[in-house]
Hints:
The chain is an alpha+beta fold.
Amino acid sequence: MHRLLNSSAMRIALRYAGIYAIFMTLGLSVLYWTSSRYVDEQISAGLQQSMSELIRIDTEKGRDKLIATLNTQQADNIKQQRHFLLLNPEQKKIAGDLQVWPQELAINSHVVNVWIADKSISKQGTADGYWPMIAATLNDGSRLLLAQSLEQAEELQEVILYTIITILLVSVGLALTMGWFIGRTLLARIDKVNMTAKAISSGNFSQRVPLSERNDEFDELAIQLNTMLVRIEQLLTGMRQVTDNIAHDLRQPLSRLRNRLEITLLEKRDTPEYQQVLGETIEDADELIRTFNALLEIAQTEAGSFRGEWQTVDMSALLAGLGELYQELAASQGKKLTINIQQGLKVTGNHHLLAQAISNLLDNAIKYTENKGRIMLSAKQQAKRIIVQISDHGLGIPLEKHALVLERFYRLDTARSTTGNGLGLSLVKAVLELHGATFKFEDNKPGLKVTLDFINL
């Protein structure tokens, strides 16, 4: 209950219940005032109409008919709501149940509220109060007074007032009850999220926020959270794998470097031997630096914070330059690289990163193509896209491992007997995502075909 009262839903419900109560009070007060005015106007109109009718009867049919009419009306008035007093020109009472003429009542044929005491009425049990009255002078100087008891009107107003209070209390009560149920429902849904978060904090990364069958906004939030949790679990799994692979890949050059230096220090050697050892040590250090530089570039590229110039890149010139460079490398290994590049291809991006990504793909194509094999580098424009393809006749990549090879340090050569650190394709992926480009692997039958899809400038 304490959590429920402190919940945002309950606070909002209380706030809106208060605002609702204020507006309901104002609205119902206007209704009460309007109904009271309406009742008063109806009483005044009734008294004026009755007075006009009685004056007409006295004028046309005589005094006896007027008195008979008044007595009949009084006899028919079961609840004694209408009272009257008829005085002769000498101010003597002729008829009526009222005993005295109120001194403050003006004879002007207008309805006014005048205080009347119960002793002023012949019928007992009538309460004191202000009554609407109307007075008129007849043709012979006689005076006629009509008064209206407000007992029924007051009862009606009481009923209206009690109804208004009941509506107000029920409305506020319903608002608070609704807030209580909404608060409980929200807390129940939030508790599921909290339980999932606690389980994950305890190390159970397989937990997910449960979904309901309502498919509401909480389920939409749960779907997004579960998607995020899946991604986090994948990243943590990848981090463990990367850690293991880093330990494996860096241990070898570090071990070689240390063993080489240790063996060198065991006995005195001549200058050429020291120079050879230092050269080999520098090569191992360069391999370590290349690995760390690749990791740094991947991290910066994935974060979108690579500190390089963003400009219009002539992809035709870039691809042609890299093609010529790798043609010589392929030829030196008994392989053939064919180039087919359309002129005038331009994209917006970083020249260095694009060059590095294309270089990694060409390097892999040459590395995994057998002797006398062929590699193809092509680029062309299709509609508003630039399509770059690098294909080879090498070993290719199995379909089930297309996604795995994009992870850091993943290598098809599980024994890691070949050169490389398993970061090339990860860098390619990061660079292309930074440039808003896509790429895919296809079976070249035999070999592999890599297709890059850029937006034309």
